[in-house]
Design a protein that fits this description.
Length: 82
């Protein structure tokens, strides 16, 4: 996932299609892999409230990617309920 999601990713989320999790395989993201796993699990469970409540401080690239992923998941799950 790039710094900003493409229009296609946003349209897909609005249509209820869950985004692909960001690639955190690089060493730079190592300390955030647990948070990503938490978000993936919440999204897989359809836990919108849990996703919204999950604390992320988007001050660097990894947390910003987590925040975008979470927001797209919330969008996709919300579209599926509309």
């Amino acid at each position: 996932m790039s710094l900003w999601p493409s229009a296609a990713v946003i349209v897909a989320a609005q249509a209820g299609i869950a985004p692909t999790p960001p690639d955190f395989s690089d060493e730079t993201h190592k300390r955030f892999r647990g948070k990503l796993a938490d978000l993936v699990a919440l999204a897989a469970a359809g836990d919108v409230a849990g996703l919204k409540a999950y604390a992320i401080n988007p001050i660097s690239s990894s947390p910003k990617a987590l925040d975008r992923y979470r927001n797209l998941c919330v969008m996709a799950l919300g579209a599926g309920r509309a």
